[in-house]
């Protein structure tokens, strides 16, 4: 800033001297000296003017930015709604195809949480008795067995998933033309094993596992998963298998409750 005032003072001094004394030499010298100084001052003036204009325009820019931000948020929300609707329609179409020949009435619900029961866990969904959901009803997704409703209130229901401790489902393991009857059980609220399989049953990793319908609690033909491997030894009476379930809880957002 001090330098700016010094240059301005010198410029005024030269211009005054050239007018008072009218010396061509002084005028020529003044022009040669003042021209670059004047140009520099002009550039400084332009820069200063730009800064001032920018400062003045900040409120307007801020308002425009806020307006654009709100539009972006609105568009993102619309995209999320469209994606959610698309996924829901896809699930509905898939479920209708699976249950097309079963003539069963279902209620679509969203998974909203996991309730820790200490020893076991329950999946919480956002539909309850007001939607016709009651204890004992089966929960599926795309023909895949998720679990069974064990608690329900007006607005929510609690589902015992097949991986939870205490869950037991009669199944059959399909190996080519052969079928072996067994029982799937939840372990540690994270794993599923298949037990009570006769030792002489021929089973390989990758064999299909579906519900058998025995006992009348679960309908037959629901997809449970595939054999992941054999856990037992040949000396045991029954085979014990590891099940790879047909779904993962982390990716489960919507389910169907069979209410009829």
From TrEMBL:
InterPro entries listed in its UniProt record: Cell/Rod_1, Cell/Rod_MreC_2, MreC, MreC_beta-barrel_core
UniProt cross-references to Pfam families, sorted A to Z: MreC (PF04085)
GO cellular component: plasma membrane
Keywords, comma-separated and alphabetical: Cell shape, Coiled coil
Record bears the keyword S-adenosyl-L-methionine: no
Coiled coil: 65-102
Domain Rod shape-determining protein MreC beta-barrel core stretches: 111-258
Membership in a protein family: Belongs to the MreC family.
Name of the protein in its database record: Cell shape-determining protein MreC
Species whose genome carries this gene: candidate division WWE3 bacterium
Gene responsible for this protein: mreC
């Amino acid at each position: 800033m001090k330098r700016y005032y010094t240059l301005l003072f010198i410029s005024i001094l030269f211009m005054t001297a050239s007018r008072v004394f009218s010396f061509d030499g002084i005028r020529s010298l003044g022009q040669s000296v003042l021209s670059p100084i004047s140009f520099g001052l002009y550039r400084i003036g332009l820069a200063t003017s730009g800064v001032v204009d920018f400062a003045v325009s900040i409120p307007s820019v801020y308002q425009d930015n806020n307006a654009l931000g709100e539009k972006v948020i609105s568009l993102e929300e619309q995209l999320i709604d469209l994606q959610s609707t698309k996924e829901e329609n896809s699930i509905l179409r898939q479920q209708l195809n699976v249950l097309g020949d079963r003539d069963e009435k279902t209620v679509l619900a969203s998974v909203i949480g996991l309730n820790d029961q200490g020893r076991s866990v329950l999946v919480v969904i956002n539909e309850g008795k007001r939607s016709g959901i009651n204890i004992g009803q089966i929960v599926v997704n795309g023909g895949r067995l998720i679990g069974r409703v064990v608690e329900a209130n007006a607005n929510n229901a609690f589902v015992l998933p097949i991986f939870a401790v205490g869950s037991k489902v009669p199944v059959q393991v399909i190996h080519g033309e052969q079928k072996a009857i067994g029982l799937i059980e939840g372990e540690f609220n994270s794993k599923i094993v298949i037990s009570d399989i006769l030792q002489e049953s021929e089973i390989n990793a990758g064999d299909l596992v579906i519900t058998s319908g025995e006992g009348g609690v679960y309908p037959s033909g629901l997809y449970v998963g595939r054999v992941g491997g054999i856990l037992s030894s040949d000396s045991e009476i029954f085979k014990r298998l590891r099940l790879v379930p047909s779904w993962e809880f982390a990716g489960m957002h919507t389910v169907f409750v069979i209410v009829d």
